[in-house]
Amino acid sequence: MKLTYLGHSTFLVEADGKRVIIDPFLEHNPKATLKPADVKVDAVLLSHAHFDHIADALPIAKANDCPIITNFELSEYYAKHGVKSHGLSIGGGFNFDFGRVKLTLAFHGAGLDIPGKDIVYGGSPAGILLTMGGKTIYHAGDTGLFGDMKLIGEMNKLDAALLPIGDNFTMGPDDALVAASWLKAGVTVPMHFNTFPLIEQDPQAFVNRLSEFGLKGAALEPGASVEI
Ligand code: NI
Ligand code: MN
Questions:
Q1: Where in the chain are the domains?
Q2: Which has fewest Cβ within 10 Å: 10, 88, 196, 228?
Q3: Which residues form the Metallo-beta-lactamase domain (predicted)?
């Protein structure tokens, strides 16, 4: 499996000739190295309805004629906007042709901000367990630390854990370190930092501290990949 970081919480995942993108936020992220028009994927996975996770979902799904896979309410919203979608609820998984997606808990907000209108309920925020090519990754979405991450680590042999470290809106580095120690993934990759002034962090310092737990990490620059 090839895992490419595209900035903020956006990842491109490739295995066995299939490609999916998680939480596409490219067009309006000056740190992103890829334009939405250049994204070629078989599915778009969304952790939750906040702008910095869904911004390019619709154009990418339209251009690729591929489904948006996310929580049920948000999937219904996209179905009404003329794209294929598949809704899951937390704890539920489904086997797609590219691999398996299961939603996990995430403790966060759920508002969908419709431009020119109001903020509406966007369904439960979630984390994503994605299995492709025999490898499993956990994209935690936006979340605070919670004890059931221990269970996620116990129930899954994780090849990668993608964890927010930005603080303010999500876990900060100290809590993310505790999460990583529970998840015990083959590689821990920080995300959701340095996009906005409120979430400035040192990803390399976070990765260095993972060795306290005998864990490996990778602080990826936007555009950089790891093979897992
Ligand atoms: Ni959020
Ligand atoms: Mn966010």
A1: 2-220
A2: 196
A3: 7-192
Closest CA to 45 of 126, 108, 151: 126
Residue 142 Cα to ligand 1 midpoint, Å, equals 5
CB 50 within 8 A of CB 38: no
DSSP 76-104: HHHHHTTS-EEEE-TT-EEE-SS-EEEEE
72 Cα–ligand 1 center, Å: 17
Among the bound ligands, name the one nearest to the CA of residue 198: 2
Place of tokens 């854990």: 161
Give residue 213 CA to ligand 1 midpoint distance, Å: 28
Q: Which CATH superfamily does the domain covering 2-220 fall into? A: Ribonuclease Z/Hydroxyacylglutathione hydrolase-like (3.60.15.10)
- pLDDT, one tens digit per residue, over 104-147 is 999 999 999 998 999 999 999 999 999 999 999 999 999 999 99
